[in-house]
């Protein structure tokens, strides 16, 4: 990803849903002014969700997602419908495209109900209004256009009618900007921050990983000074500093070493922990890590990553974490792995879920995953929290977070206890 490009996880995700041949792909192409999705008269042309990042005025940076038809048939069709519904777990806005000639059908009503259930803001778009005069078998028009419902837009992807209005309605529908701040409560203008960023085989040559990029930008936005070093130069860097830094943020993999170098009176946390708070519930992650003390031989632990990458010989998810967990617990649990968009609907077979910081996932999808674990009673933590816990520095690593620090001071967190 280019340094000047908005990460996909920070874009507004807009999903286009509807029955086969309702014109989902055509409407999305008309909205974007590009041929992002394949259009065909053949039903079921879109067989998997298609994603495209772009700038869309007046919304700004967006992720457009075209989905398979919600009325697909057969065993393979059922899997495609399932894929379409799964997209709802990460979209910020939904567009239900309905054939204006045929009108709303059962599948459309079911999808609308699912939007409501998942609290996804949505619009119903009646497409093909250039053909809306077509009569049904009873001899009357199926869709009657009145324009009084703000949740309904009438368009024609074929001739462009209503497309501008649709874009404006989407802009008004977008969630209010809650001004989330990755560094909330951690720094103030003029503070000095030290970022410890190991360069390993997983980091592409010439690039920094996304959490590091976003943290650097956030520090610049806050008017902070910063120093970026590898762990191998950390001690020398501290020796050269004229004053102690106000904050140190480290890659979790070297948490133990960095904690031994950084003075106890300097705030210390990790990229993974910051993102756990930024994208989801940090308190749930802190509470969930305590399940590590109850792990027994044969217990299933799910290690889940939000991105997909080539596995290295010393990969953190599949090699380092399992090794650290075995060493800490003295047990031999069974490890399972998921990556990217894969995340099980049924989590009841797991004793613990360990998730990455979620830098590649948007806030909605990360919170959905946490909600799934919470609703099914499965403890869920994240990489940074678990590594800090194993190294005996959990309290120190979350102390800089104002809300968690208060819980700690009030005794809400106790080892082998509950965080309420």
Give the C-level CATH assignment of the largest domain.
Alpha Beta
Strand content: 15-25%
- CATH topology term of the largest domain: Rossmann fold
- Please list the strands of the largest sheet in the order they lie side by side: 2-3-1-4-5-6
Q: Please state the CA-atom Rg, rounded to the nearest Å.
A: 24 Å
- Order of helix and strand elements from N to C terminus: EHEEHEHEEHEHEHEHEHHEHEEHEHHH
Number of domains: 3
Low-confidence stretches: 134-141, 415-420
Query: By CATH's scheme, which homologous superfamily of the largest domain applies?
Result: P-loop containing nucleotide triphosphate hydrolases
Provide mean pLDDT, rounded.
84
Task: List descriptors.
Rossmann fold; 4-stranded parallel sheet; 420 residues; disordered C terminus; alpha/beta; single chain; 14 helices; globular
Structural overview:
- This protein is α/β, with parallel strands linked by helices.
- It has three domains: 166 residues, Rossmann fold (3-Layer(aba) Sandwich); 82 residues, Rossmann fold, CATH 3.40.50; 129 residues, 3-Layer(aba) Sandwich (Rossmann fold).
- It is 32% helix and 17% strand.
- The chain contains 14 helices and 14 strands.
- The strands form three sheets. It has a six-stranded mixed β-sheet with strand order 2-3-1-4-5-6, sandwiched between helices. It has a four-stranded parallel β-sheet with strand order 8-7-9-10, sandwiched between helices.
- Helix 7 links the parallel strand 9 and strand 10.
- The radius of gyration is 24 Å and the shape is globular.
- The chain starts with 11 loop residues before the first strand and ends in an 11-residue tail after the last helix.
- The C terminus is likely disordered.
């Amino acid at each position: 990803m280019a340094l000047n490009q908005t990460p996909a996880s920070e874009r507004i995700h807009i999903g286009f849903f509807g029955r086969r041949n309702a014109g989902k792909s055509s409407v999305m192409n008309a909205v974007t002014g590009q041929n992002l999705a394949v259009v065909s008269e053949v039903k079921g042309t879109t067989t998997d969700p298609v994603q495209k990042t772009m700038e869309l005025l007046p919304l700004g940076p967006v992720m457009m997602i075209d989905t398979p038809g919600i009325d697909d048939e057969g065993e393979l069709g059922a899997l495609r419908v399932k894929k379409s519904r799964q997209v709802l777990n990460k979209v910020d806005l939904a567009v239900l495209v309905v054939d204006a000639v045929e009108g709303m059908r059962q599948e459309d009503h079911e999808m609308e109900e699912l939007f409501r259930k998942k609290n996804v803001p949505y619009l119903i778009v009646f497409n093909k209004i250039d053909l809306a005069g077509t009569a049904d078998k009873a001899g009357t028009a199926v869709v009657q256009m009145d324009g009084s419902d703000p949740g309904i837009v009438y368009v024609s992807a074929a001739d462009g009618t209503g497309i501008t209005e649709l874009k404006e309605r989407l802009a008004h529908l977008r969630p209010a900007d809650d001004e989330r701040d990755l560094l909330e409560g951690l720094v103030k203008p003029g503070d000095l921050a030290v970022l410890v960023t190991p360069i390993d085989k997983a980091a592409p040559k010439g690039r920094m990983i996304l959490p590091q990029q976003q943290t650097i930008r956030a520090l610049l936005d806050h008017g902070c000074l910063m120093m970026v070093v590898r762990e191998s130069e950390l001690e020398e860097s501290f020796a050269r500093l004229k004053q102690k830094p106000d904050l140190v943020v480290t890659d979790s993999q070297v948490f133990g070493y960095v904690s031994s170098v950084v003075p106890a009176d300097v705030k210390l946390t990790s990229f993974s922990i910051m993102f756990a708070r930024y994208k989801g519930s940090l308190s749930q992650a802190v509470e969930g890590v305590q399940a590590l003390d109850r792990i027994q031989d044969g217990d299933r632990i799910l290690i889940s990553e939000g991105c997909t990458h080539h596995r290295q010989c010393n990969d953190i998810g599949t090699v380092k974490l399992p090794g650290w967990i075995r060493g800490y617990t003295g047990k031999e649990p069974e490890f399972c792995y998921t990556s990217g968009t894969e995340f099980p609907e049924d989590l009841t077979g797991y004793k613990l879920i360990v998730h990455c910081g979620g830098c590649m996932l948007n806030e909605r999808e990360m919170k959905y995953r946490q909600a799934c674990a919470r609703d099914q009673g499965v403890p869920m933590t994240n990489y940074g929290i678990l590594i800090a816990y194993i190294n005996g520095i959990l309290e120190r690593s979350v102390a800089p977070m104002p809300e968690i620090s208060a819980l700690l001071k009030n005794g809400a967190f106790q080892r082998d206890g509950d965080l309420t």
